[in-house]
Amino acid sequence: MDKQTRYEKGLLKLSEVDGSGGHAVVRSLENIAPDLGKYIIEFAFGDIYTRETLSLKQREMITLTALLTQGGCENQLRVHIAGALNVGLSQTDIVETFIQCIPYVGFPKVLNAVFTAKEVFQNHAVTS
Amino acid sequence: MDKQTRYEKGLLKLSEVDGSGGHAVVRSLENIAPDLGKYIIEFAFGDIYTRETLSLKQREMITLTALLTQGGCENQLRVHIAGALNVGLSQTDIVETFIQCIPYVGFPKVLNAVFTAKEVFQNHAVTS
Amino acid sequence: MDKQTRYEKGLLKLSEVDGSGGHAVVRSLENIAPDLGKYIIEFAFGDIYTRETLSLKQREMITLTALLTQGGCENQLRVHIAGALNVGLSQTDIVETFIQCIPYVGFPKVLNAVFTAKEVFQNHAVTS
Amino acid sequence: MDKQTRYEKGLLKLSEVDGSGGHAVVRSLENIAPDLGKYIIEFAFGDIYTRETLSLKQREMITLTALLTQGGCENQLRVHIAGALNVGLSQTDIVETFIQCIPYVGFPKVLNAVFTAKEVFQNHAVTS
Amino acid sequence: MDKQTRYEKGLLKLSEVDGSGGHAVVRSLENIAPDLGKYIIEFAFGDIYTRETLSLKQREMITLTALLTQGGCENQLRVHIAGALNVGLSQTDIVETFIQCIPYVGFPKVLNAVFTAKEVFQNHAVTS
Amino acid sequence: MDKQTRYEKGLLKLSEVDGSGGHAVVRSLENIAPDLGKYIIEFAFGDIYTRETLSLKQREMITLTALLTQGGCENQLRVHIAGALNVGLSQTDIVETFIQCIPYVGFPKVLNAVFTAKEVFQNHAVTS
C-alpha cells in the first residue's frame, strides 16, 4: 500500500510541478525504461518534492540551479523552467536565479540556461 | 568613483553574507592574487549579490546548490554554509537544500555537502 | 509494509555490498540528515541494487566508474572499492576498470582513483 | 614496426567494437585532425581495449558509464551504445547500466542516456 | 564615469576578440537578461580580457581549453573559435590546443570541440 | 623499436616538464598500476607533449586550464604548476592563466587553483 502511496503522491506532485511536460517525459520512457519513469515519480516527486521545510518555489529554484550547474541538461531545464512558472516563480525570478550563478559557474552555462528560458517563455506566451 | 562604490558596496555585502570567513579568503589572496580578491568583492558581491528580485536567503540557497553540484568545492561550501546561517537560513533549511539536490546530482556530492555542513554546524555551535 | 520491505531489503543489500563502511556512512548521518541515510538504504540499495539483469560485480564496476568520472568523490570511492572487493571483484579487476576510463576521462581522475585504491588495498591487507 | 602493430591492432578492435560508427568518426577527422583519429585507434583501441582481465562487454559497460556521467557526450554515447550491442550486450543490459547510475549521478544525465539509447535501438531495428 | 569606462573598454575588446559573434550574443540577451550582456562586456571583456601579462592569443587559448573541458558549451566554443582566429591563432594552433587536452580530459570532449571547429572553419572559409 | 622510442621520448619530455614530481607519480604507480605510468610516459608525454606547433609553455598553460576547469585535481595541478615553472612560465603567468578562467568557470575553482599555486610557490622558494 505504501508503494502505491509513494507513486500516487509522486504523480500528484509531478502534475503540480511539471504539468504536461513531466508526464510527457514519463510517457516517453514507457517502451524503453518504464522503471526509470516510476523512480522519477516515486523517489524524486513522491519522496523528495513532498518533503516539508522548503516551498515548491524554493525547490524549483534549487533544481534549476543544479541543472544549470552540471551543464548539458537543456531538456531537463526546459521542463523545470516551465515547472518553475507553474509553481509561481516569475520569469524575472528565474532569470535572476541564473544570474546569481554567474560568479560560481561562469558565463557559458548561464548563457545556455538563459537562452533555454527565452525559448520556454516564448512558447509559454503563445500557448497561454 | 563608481569603481570605489562597487568595491565599497561589495565589501559591505561580503561582511553581511560571509562575515569573517569571506574576509579571510580575500586576505589570503593578498600576496598571490590580490586582483582575484578585488573581483570577488566588486563583481560577485558588489554587482551580483546586491541585485534586487531575490533575497539574500534565496541567493545563498542558489550558491550552496551551485557549489554542491560542481563538486570539489568543499572550501567554498564551508564559507557559504556559514554565510547561509548568517543571512538567516536555518540548519534545517541548509540540509533540506542539499536533500532537494539528490534526484538531480545523485548521493555522492550530497553526502560531501552534508558532511561539510556537519563540520561547520559543530564549529558554529562551539564559537557562538 | 512495503516501505519497511524496501528499507529492510536495502539494509541487507548494503551489508552485502559495502559492509561496515556503508553502515558507518549511514550512522554518521544520524544527527544531521537521517533521511539521507534512509534514502540511500531504501532507494540506492533497496530499489536499485536489488534489481535483476546485472550482477553485483557489474553494479559495483558501474558505480566505481561513475564515481571516478565525476571527480571529487574520493570518500565514496573508498567505500565502493571496499564494496567491490566484498562482492568478488579482484584488485586487478578494479584497477583495470579505472584503466578502461583513461580514453574517456583522461589521466588525472584515473590517477586519483588508483591512488585511492592503493590506500584501500593496503588497509584491506592489514585488516584481513 | 611496433607503431604499425598498435595501429593495426587498434583498427581491428575498433571494427570489432564500434563497427561502421567508429570508422565514420575517424574518417570525419581526416581533413581537420587526422592525428586525433590515429590516437583513438592506437591508444584507445590498440592499447586499452586490447588489454586482458576485462571482457569487451565489461569494457563497453564502463565506457557507457563514463560517457553518461560526464554529460554532453551524446554523440559518443550513440557510437558506444551501438558498440555495446555489437559486442553482445543486450538492450536490457544497456538500459540497466544507465539505471544503476541513478543514485550516483542523478536522473537528468540518465534520462539523456536513455533517450539516446532509444534512438539507437530504433535505428538498429530498422537497419537489421 | 568609471562604469562607462569599463563598459566602453569591454565593448572595444569584445569587438576585437569575438567580432560580430560576440555582439550577436549580447544582442540576443536584450529582451530577456540585458544585465547578463552588460556583465559579459564589463567584467569578462572590460576587466579580464584587458589585463596585462598575457596576450590575446594566450587568453583565447585558455578560454578554448576551459570551454572544451567543462563540456556542453558548443555554442560558446563556436564564438571563441572564431575569436581565436580573429586574434591571430591559426586553425592549426586551435586544433593543437584541443589535442593537448586529450590526456587531461579524454577523447570525447576533444572530439566535440574538433567537430565544432570543423564547422566554424568551413563557415569562415565561405564568408571570407 | 618504436615502442621503446615512444617511452624514451616520453621519459625525456617528462623530465623536462615535470621534473622530479612527474617521476614520483610514475614511481608511486609501480606496485599498483605500472601500465598507467607507462601510458602517461608513452602517450601523454611521448605522443602529445612532443608534438610541434605549440611550445612547452603553451602546452603547460593549456594543461593548467584543463586541470583547473575539471576540478578535484589539486594533486595534478601541484605537479603541473611546478612543471609550468620548469618550462619557463613565471609565477605571474600562472596566476594570470587562472584569472583568465574566472568568466568561464567561476570563482570557486579559480580559488582552489590559486591556493594550490600559493603552496607550490612557497615550497619552490624554500627548495631553490
Helix content bin of chain A = over 70%
Mean model confidence by pLDDT of chain A: 93
Number of strands of chain A: 0
pLDDT under 50 segments of chain A (min length 5)? none
Query: Under the CATH scheme, which class of the largest domain in chain A?
Result: Mainly Alpha
Pairing-aware structural class of the strands and helices of chain A? mainly alpha
Oligomer: homohexamer
Q: What Rg of chain A do the Cα atoms give?
A: 15 Å
What proportion strand of chain A?
A: under 5%
**What is the name of the CATH topology of the largest domain in chain A?**
AhpD-like
Morphology call of chain A: globular
Number of helices of chain A: 7
How would you sum up the major sheet of chain A?
none
Element pattern of chain A in H and E: HHHHHHH
**Through-space gap between termini of chain A:** 38 Å
- Main interface by residue count: A-B, 30 and 30 residues
What CATH architecture label of the largest domain in chain A applies?
A: Up-down Bundle
Domain module count of chain A: 2
The CATH superfamily name of the largest domain in chain A is AhpD-like
